[in-house]
Amino acid sequence: MYADQYSALGSKSAALCYRFASGVGPAISPAEIPDALIAKENAINRRIVETATIRAIANATASDGLWKKIGAVLATKGVKNEQFDLLSVATIPPEKYGDYCSIMTMLFREVSKLPQREAGTLMRDLLADK
Questions:
Q1: What is the 3-state secondary structure (H, E, C) of 83-121?
Q2: What's the pTM value of the predicted model, to 2 decimals?
Q3: Helices (H) then strands (E): counts for the chain
Q4: Which end of the chain is more exposed for a tag (fewer CB within 10 A), N or C?
């Protein structure tokens, strides 16, 4: 769902996508996101609430291994180290917004291809700060 939202916003403007994906700057109006994606997000959020449970904290070593796995896949798709670095800096110049959004879109698409338990571990890492 996140990858689809980033892609939809990125097709309008790299700045919109960056603001939404990074949480930097003014919030994005829900009107900027297609209705079908809003509905999909609402359905996912409902499912999250309905299935919520206390979970054990993920093993940091396992999580690190999964991130290396995703990093290796993205590297085979042409993502360079300096592009990965965009995901961990506080401020990105506007000319790099498109790169940031592309990497985030690819990242979420690759995470979604993992087995459910592995994807869940990485999604919890990704969304911990949100």
A1: HHHHHHCCCCCHHHHHHHHHHHHHHHHHHHHCCHHHHHH
A2: 0.84
A3: 7, 0
A4: C
Tens of pLDDT, residues 12-41: 999 999 999 998 888 899 899 999 999 999
What is the spatial distance between Cα 108 and Cα 112, in angstroms, rounded to a whole number? Answer: 6
- Quote the CA–CA distance of 130 and 126 in Å, as a whole number: 8
Domain that holds residue 13: 2-127
The structural domain count of the chain equals 1
pLDDT in tens, 72-128: 999 999 999 888 889 888 889 999 999 999 999 999 999 999 999 899 889 888 887
Residue with tokens 């085979």: 76
Query: From CA 24, how far away is CA 109, in angstroms rounded?
Result: 22
